[in-house]
Write a structure and sequence with these properties.
Blueprint (H helix, E strand, L loop, with lengths): L12 H8 L3 H11 L5 E2 L5 E2 L2 H15 L4 H4 L4 H11 L7 H6 L1 E8 L1 H8 L1 H5 L4 E9 L2 H6 L8 E9 L1 H14 L3 E9 L1 H8 L4 E4 L4 H9 L8 H5 L13 H8 L9 H25 L4 H29 L10
Parallel strand pairs: 3-4, 3-5, 5-6, 6-7
Antiparallel strand pairs: 1-2
Helix pairs in contact: 3-5, 12-16, 14-15, 15-16
């Protein structure tokens, strides 16, 4: 009997089936006939599966759907399965006409299940406004932190079971080292006290379960809407950049009186605060209300686009008036 690990969640076969979408009968055949899993056992001989088994099952599901035989896959290690999956990855291609009009969003994904969903044709059909290019797929945050990302993606999409302080630090380190514009985190469990800390980073947070339509809405909420054509024409990326100036900087700018532009610094700073607040409110509604997720994704995108435009306007005003936008103007 294998010793039960004490530092990771363990699942019975029914839970494993629910997590992966694979029928219990199929999992049992894969295990008994091909030796695909080596679960631990309780004193009562109940099989318990760990996180590695969950990942293996997800990879088996994806690779068998692409024509690979389970008898061949079952003998491979987790690393070999992931390498094979990466070699087989092929994003659904839009028609020639759609490719000419679509914008491409680059994304690194932490979580094999999420990557598989995004790469499926079914998901792509829910997300035709942009073409998604996955730069890298990682099993977990530890792997993402230890490996170099091949190309700087615009979005980091993360799937974690538990939101905790260690995960927050890992996501922050990856984001800073790769200069990623936006972070989307999908989780199962979290302490309420930590959720506020995650959201102060400007990241989009959503608890599972989540449909493909919900996931598409989450990604859409950090993209500039098609109506904001002036931003792309002026060289701004199709991604909404995170907030540049906090309330303290904007309050200082708003309190500066100028002789040339009258109250323009104050008005622009006030507008940025209002738009940033509404952007945060829309993101919160997007996470809480699945029925209106599409609407709130649009509202978050519009307010974020407008906020980014007014931040650029503030920089123009500050340059004209000689106003420093540093957090500490004395430095």
């Amino acid at each position: 009997m294998n010793q039960l690990p004490s530092d990771e969640p363990l699942y019975r076969i029914g839970a494993l089936a629910r997590l992966t979408g694979i029928p219990v009968t199929t999992l049992r055949v894969w295990e008994t006939r091909y030796g695909a899993f080596t679960p631990s056992k309780t004193a009562g001989q109940h099989r318990l599966y760990g996180s590695q088994d969950v990942l293996r099952a997800q990879l088996f599901k994806q690779l068998t759907a692409e024509g690979h035989a389970i008898s061949t896959l079952a003998v491979l290690s987790l690393a070999q399965l992931q390498d094979l999956r990466n070699q087989q990855r092929s994003a659904f291609m839009l028609t020639a006409h759609q490719r000419l009009q679509a914008k491409t969003v680059s994304m690194a994904v932490v979580g094999l299940g999420l990557a598989g969903r995004i790469e499926s044709k079914k998901f792509t059909l829910n997300f035709l406004s942009h073409a998604i290019r996955i730069t890298d797929v990682f099993t977990d945050l530890a792997q993402a932190a230890s490996r170099a990302i091949s190309d700087k993606p615009q979005i980091l999409l993360v799937r974690v079971i538990v939101l905790d302080e260690q995960a927050l630090q890992q996501v922050q380190a990856i984001t800073q080292s790769q200069q990623i514009l936006q972070v989307i985190v999908v989780y199962s469990y979290a302490m309420a006290s930590l959720l506020a800390a995650w959201r102060t980073k400007g990241w989009v947070i959503r608890r599972e379960p989540m449909t493909d339509e919900d996931l598409a809405d989450l990604i859409s909420s950090v993209l500039i809407v098609d109506a904001a054509k002036s931003m792309s024409e002026s060289g701004v990326s199709s991604m909404i950049p995170p907030r540049k100036y906090d309330d303290a900087v904007l309050a200082r700018v708003a309190g500066i009186s100028t002789s040339v532009l009258c109250e323009c610094p104050q008005h622009v700073a006030d507008l940025i605060v209002q738009l940033a607040n509404f952007e945060t409110y829309s993101q919160a509604c997007l996470s809480r209300n699945a029925n209106d997720a599409h609407l709130h994704a649009f509202l978050a995108s519009v307010s974020g686009s407008a906020r980014a435009l007014f931040e650029r306007a503030l920089e123009k005003v500050a340059e004209h008036e000689g106003i420093k936008l540093d957090p500490d103007p004395s430095t």
